[in-house]
Write a structure and sequence with these properties.
The complex is a heterodimer of chains A (about 425) and B (about 350). Chain A is of the alpha/beta class. Chain A has a single domain, classed as TIM Barrel, CATH 3.20.20. Chain A is about 30% helix and about 25% strand. Chain A contains twelve helices and 18 strands. In chain A, helix 1 crosses helix 2, helix 2 packs parallel to helix 3 and helix 7 runs parallel beside helix 8. Chain A is globular and about 65 Å long. The two termini of chain A are about 25 Å apart. Chain B has about 350 residues and is α/β, with parallel strands linked by helices. The model of chain B has no long low-confidence stretch (mean pLDDT about 90). A five-stranded parallel beta sheet of chain B has the order 1-6-5-3-4, sandwiched between helices. A five-stranded parallel beta sheet of chain B has the order 9-8-7-10-11. Helix content of chain B is about 40%, strand content about 15%. In chain B, helix 2 crosses helix 6, helix 2 packs across helix 13 and helix 6 packs across helix 7. Chain B starts with 8 loop residues before the first helix and ends with a strand. Classes of the chains: A alpha/beta (about 425), B alpha/beta (about 350). The interface between A and B is medium-sized, with 18 and 25 residues.
Chain lengths: ~425, ~350
Amino acid sequence: MTTHLIENGRLIDPRQKLDRVGRLLIIDGCVAAIDPSDGDLPADCPRIDAGGMIVAPGLVDLAAEFREPGFDEDETIHSASHAALAGGFTSVLATASTDPVVDSYGAVEYIRQKAAEARGARIHVVGCLSKGREGEQMAELGLLAGAGAVAFSDAPRSVPNDALLKRALEYCRMLGRPIIDRPEVPSLADSGVMHDGQVSLVLGLKGLPTEAEDLAVARDVRLAEATGGRLHVGPVSTMGAVDMIRRVKSRGIKVTASACPHNLSLTDHSLRSYESRFKVHPPLRSPRHVETLCGAVADGTIDALQSGHMPRSREKMMNDLDLTPFGMSSLETSLATAVTYLIETGILDWTKLIDRFSCRPAKIAGLTDAGSIAPGSVADVVLIDPGCTWRVDPQQFRSRCISSPFEGQNLTGKVMLAMVGGEIRYRQSD
Amino acid sequence: MPDTLPDLTPYRARWNRRHLLDLESLSADEIVTLLDVAQVMKEATGGCRRKISLLQGKTCANLFFENSTRTRNSFSLAAKRLGADTVEFGSSGSSVAKGETYVDTAKTIEAMGVDWVVTRHSTPGTPHLLARELDCCVLNAGDGPHEHPTQGLLDLLTIRQHRGSFEGLTVAMVGDIAHSRTARSNIWGLHKLGAHVIVCGPPTLVSERWRELGFEVAHHLDEILPRCDVLNLLRIQFERQKARPFPSVHEYAALYAMNAARMKKARKDILIMAPGPINRGVEITPEVADGPHSVILEQVNNGIAVRMAALWLLAAADDAHRGIAPNSQEPNTNISGSTS
């Protein structure tokens, strides 16, 4: 029987409206009690001093590319699942930018087995929405769900076929699984490499117009409304997308959305250096979009924060910008980015941050074993030092990808310990 | 024609960059320095026909990953006029065709002991990438639709030779602004030196965002023509366009080609410029291209002087960076009659 008593920490769990200094007792992989009396403690219970730290449910990432099988040079399930823990994510939805793609029972099983062997964060499989991820024919969604897929998506591509998306939304109602769409109209995105705006105009780089995202979101939410299917759009990055989501939510349509911390903190001005580490997808937008996006995260229009982890090997990132793929390593910086740019600026408080990073994404993904530290919950717990400022050195990442737009920057907020099912799987000193 | 060079020391003091990547990041004083040195080089070499052995022993590598005739030859001649050696590199038939990356190819060439890499590439920002990765001086000879700084400088030099100054001048860039690196260099150079810049063409080629950046945007050439002191006619870059941004070449020519009828509406002393290659009958008709207002061939000649100036200034900054004292012989450097 594994037991831990985490004491002196600031316990935050928005789901139970909890925010106070207290003690958390973990027994047998589950949260046994909050503030137990000394008499209720098992004998010789190991104690973890969380003085000055935040104790919260582990973060849940709605989409991270793992790249295995097929692109192990970018990332493996093992490296990503441990990078996730170092970033505070105890559950991650792995999207299927793999080769072969995840459109079969065997492919789902492969990832699940590899994830179990890795003993890092919990890895949940996102199955392909279309066969071969070719955007034509529905994949065997029912069988994939049976194998353990928690959601379906053709990410990082949007579902290009309107009728396919509509059918899939209808079909998935019986499976109780959400569809995650990365919204972008391909013909408008064309071969753009950065936000289409003043900066791209001056740099002569081909732009990704905001309309490409706006129109895709408009299509997606309309089809969700028509079908009653569970749709999650994200990551989003534009004012138009925010406006659309806000409007449909006000009409009671059940659509959720997410955004990435780097899209909430950096602008397209970063590309002035022409460095490939700023070529990310969705692109870094202009300050007006960033400001609107921050407001939408604060007021809940955007439900969740996600890492946007798109690992690519160093050799792939060492090319001219046209040939360089979109990519970045962000599992290990997302939380600190959000702390630095959203909490320290007063846009979010800690309760909202944990809500957007843990509670809501767990609910969106239908994960019953994540997003809360209420008694009886699975003990996926993270300890965060909220005041620790650290310099981002990608060479120290657990991820295989060392491309980060935050390289060399000081960020605040450090994950000190992460626990999965009551087992300590990450300590900052490790 | 002088037998020795004037003292270049004052120019050296006004310049400390080891790379020439764009005009946007240069100050007005730096641009003027480049133009002044170019003028000195041109006069000292009789219109760039003779050699000045200022940079003997140095080597200039031309790394051209896109086709080029005038720019490549102009850089080669400029280096040779300064007494430097040249290495020519084209991507076809090279290791690039075998899968070697742009950066690795450049590093390989650099390892052969070159002092400058002159690079042209279809992707914006590639010279900036090389400037980070290489130790030698990097000159941008055109990076996709981003900038072509020496083209911008030679255009500025040509205008200054004819008009003396830029204050109060109205200069229109006409045509494919969206895909033009010449436009993106000229716009900044002209703006910094005090000219009023108009970008003119159909909305699919001229973004309204230029207005937000402080430039005049026009879509009707006939409306702005009477106000212009200089017209710089840009080629339609079909090779960079996936979808044609106007209905037909015929329609484009009708709306934007500089022709004899339009010349009658222009100022008497208007300068007609084009970065070349020109599409006769599309952006300019033969009678205008070859007419008395055209300075197109002067631009080509000024290109050598500008590139000599750029090579010399970067080398001087590089020497300073490496702690090498300036050549004490410089003011008395002999000018030879050789032309190659």
